[in-house]
């Protein structure tokens, strides 16, 4: 069986990280060697960049700096971990990838989309996921789940309603534009229902 590269996307508290765990468990049950990574992060360099990006002390960060830092973290992750894993037959599940940058920095922060797509090509070295699962939830649901978690918001979570609504619109626009790659999953339902859909889509992509 060929290794597959699957990415999971959604606004904060969409449930995608929980679903990453379910996909990993399912792959392992099939005996498929699998690597799970999260963005930003996954390498020593990328985790340091993550700390910079999420630190609430850095509220002066310009949107362009933010774009380049997320992209730098990704460039390192692709070269150090994702490409080598795929080359040695290991499937990769990524909790966020380049669509996060398009949605958050492009649609959310309003940066130029053409420039962002050029930066993606450089950062990812042209690597595209075999499938992207986008977990769609509304701002209210996201906020409710954040309140239930408690604790302080990080620098990105501190965005306002308008920001998250633009990010969601961005994801829906990406799903329409790249409809052969991006699958929309209704993330507002209970976890079991979402997991059933997730595994059905995963089975589909590995049987291709
Ligand atoms: P996480 O909460 O899913 O770990 O992601 C960290 C935050 O960073 C989350 O609020 C989404 C945001 N983000 C971007 O704004 N752009 C990106 O390219 C990535 C990967 C994440």
Mean pLDDT: 97
Please indicate the percent range of residues in DSSP E strands (runs of 2 or more). Answer: 5-15%
Shape: globular
Biggest sheet layout: 5 strands, parallel
In angstroms, what is the radius of gyration?
A: 16 Å
What is the number of beta strands?
5
**Low-pLDDT runs:** none
Structural class comes to alpha/beta
Number of helices: 8
Listed once per kind, the bound small molecules are: thymidine-5'-phosphate
Distance between the termini: 10 Å
Topology order in helix (H) and strand (E) letters: EHEHHEHHEHHEH
What does this molecule look like?
The protein has 208 residues and is α/β, with parallel strands linked by helices. The chain is built from eight helices and five strands, in the order E-H-E-H-H-E-H-H-E-H-H-E-H. It has helices spanning 16-29, 44-54, 63-87, 98-108, 113-124, 139-149, 161-177, 191-206; strands at residues 5-9, 34-38, 91-95, 131-136, 182-186. A five-stranded parallel sheet has the order 2-3-1-4-5, sandwiched between helices. Helix 3 runs parallel beside helix 5 (113-124). The protein starts with a strand and ends with a helix. 37% of the residues are buried. The model has no long low-confidence stretch (mean pLDDT 97). Thymidine-5'-phosphate (TMP) is lined by residues 12, 38-40, 70, 96, 100-101, 104-105, 156-157.
């Amino acid at each position: 069986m060929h290794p597959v590269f699957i990415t999971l996307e959604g606004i904060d508290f969409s449930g995608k990280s929980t679903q990453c765990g379910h996909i990993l468990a399912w792959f392992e049950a099939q005996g498929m060697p699998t690597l799970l990574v999260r963005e930003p992060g996954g390498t020593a360099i990328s985790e340091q960049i993550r700390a910079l990006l999420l630190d609430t002390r850095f509220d002066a960060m310009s949107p362009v700096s933010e774009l380049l830092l997320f992209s730098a973290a990704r460039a390192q992750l692709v070269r150090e971990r994702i490409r080598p894993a795929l080359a040695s037959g290991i499937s990769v599940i990524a909790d966020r990838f380049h669509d996060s940058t398009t949605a958050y920095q492009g649609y959310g922060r309003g940066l130029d989309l053409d420039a962002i797509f050029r930066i993606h090509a450089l950062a990812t070295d042209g690597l595209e996921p075999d499938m992207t699962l986008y977990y769609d939830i509304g701002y209210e649901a996201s906020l409710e789940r954040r309140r239930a978690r408690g604790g302080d918001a990080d620098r990105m979570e501190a965005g306002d309603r308008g920001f998250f609504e633009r990010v969601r619109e961005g994801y829906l626009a990406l799903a329409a534009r790249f409809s052969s790659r991006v699958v929309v999953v209704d993330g507002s339902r209970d976890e079991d229902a979402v997991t059933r859909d997730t595994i059905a889509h995963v089975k589909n992509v590995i049987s291709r």
